[in-house]
Amino acid sequence: MLTIGIDAGTSKWAVSVLEEYREKGKTKTEFKFETTILTKEVKKDMGALLNLIQDFNPDCIVFPSGYGLPLKKISELDDNDLFKISLKKESEKESLGIRKFLSEAKKRKFNGYVIPSVKQLPTVENFKKINVIDLGTSDKLCSVIYALSLSKNFKTENFILAEIGYGFNAFIKIYGGKICDGIGGTIASSGFLAHGKTDKEIINNRKVEKFSGGVLSILKKKISPQEFFKNYKNFKNRELAHLYFMDGLIKDISALSDPKISKIYLCGKISVFVEGEIKEGLERKSGRIFEVENIEKNESNACIHWSSAGRGGAILANGICGGKFKNLTDWMEIKDARGDIFDYIFM
């Protein structure tokens, strides 16, 4: 069995190809191929990525699904579904190109699915869904799946997954191997690029761009994350930006934490730079010990050509098809997702 997961990120898209095979009477899995492609290149030429996927002739694909839908075949998507996934009409400009990509994939008749976001899961209590759309987009659900796949006993896992990306941050709470709460990117603390939660008074009184208000806006210049975290104390506004960024991360993780949770998993482009500071900040704030682990950090600290969301998507596709990871994806009740991102809105 060959399955594919696709993660559409702010700066790059990631593709993971998972193979399930039998060896000496045992079922095994291996990531056969992985790559990342700059988001601007995908938007410029989606055909190249679609051709890459088609050449593998996969049994099942989990597609980037944005704000999510209850599990649905890509062949069944209509215009209303595409709007709910992207919150963009066909005539509107997209930052990631997900809507157009799904439309093109549907034309090619791929065997694949769009998947839920955190809000649509039955494992999240309904009162937590009131007046919010983004409790964690579908790619964050996939990152959780990847984190759980690393466990020898996923049914006992309690942790918070903090995805610290280039654009946004997001924080997902897991109890007993099931997602039970989340703080999505648009209501989380500031990302490196985007502002996250923002006072309505600001939005009412000035034009606010989606990808503004983060670290780079405070610096008023574009620099790499590597350069910023290496030298932030030595330049004007860098220490201000650093304190603002780190304070938000600690507050959001703390908001989901409780005495039963001491494990924090990190992922995302920026996570490698803040691992130690998150551990120190949480322990200083709470007075207890935390285990902080980066699930996307390799031994050499070199750039990885995959994402936890891409890998989690391939694992979910395997589970949907009844493969080795069926028990994991069934346990998370993903097939039982129901409802709409606009449910429980009372405004």
Features:
6-stranded mixed β-sheet; 33% helix; Nucleotidyltransferase, domain 5; 347 residues; alpha/beta; 5-stranded mixed β-sheet; 2 domains
Descriptive overview:
β2 and β3 (26-38) form a beta hairpin. 33% of the residues lie in helices and 20% in strands. It has two domains: 1-117 and 300-347, Nucleotidyltransferase, domain 5 (2-Layer Sandwich), CATH 3.30.420; 151-294, Nucleotidyltransferase, domain 5. With 347 residues, it is of the alpha/beta class. It contains twelve helices and eleven strands. The strands form two sheets. Strands 3-2-1-4-6-5 form a six-stranded mixed sheet.
Short description:
The chain has 347 residues and is α/β, with parallel strands linked by helices. The chain has helices at 39-44, 46-56, 79-86, 98-107, 138-149, 200-205, 215-219, 225-231, 238-256, 275-286, 308-320, 326-331, and strands at residues 2-8, 12-23, 26-38, 60-62, 72-73, 112-114, 159-164, 169-175, 178-183, 263-267, 291-294.
What's the alpha carbon Rg, rounded to whole Å? 19 Å
Number of DSSP E strands? 11
Strand content: 15-25%
Using the alpha-carbon principal axes, give the shape.
globular
Could you describe the largest sheet, including whether it forms a barrel? 6 strands, mixed
What's the number of structural domains?
2
Instruction: Please estimate the helix content.
Output: 25-40%
Q: Which CATH architecture of the largest domain? A: 2-Layer Sandwich
Write the element-wise H/E pattern from the N-terminal end onward: EEEHHEEHHEHEEEHHHHEHEHH
N-to-C span:
46 Å
CATH topology grouping of the largest domain: Nucleotidyltransferase, domain 5
Number of helices: 12
Query: Strand pairing plus helix content: what structural class?
Result: alpha/beta
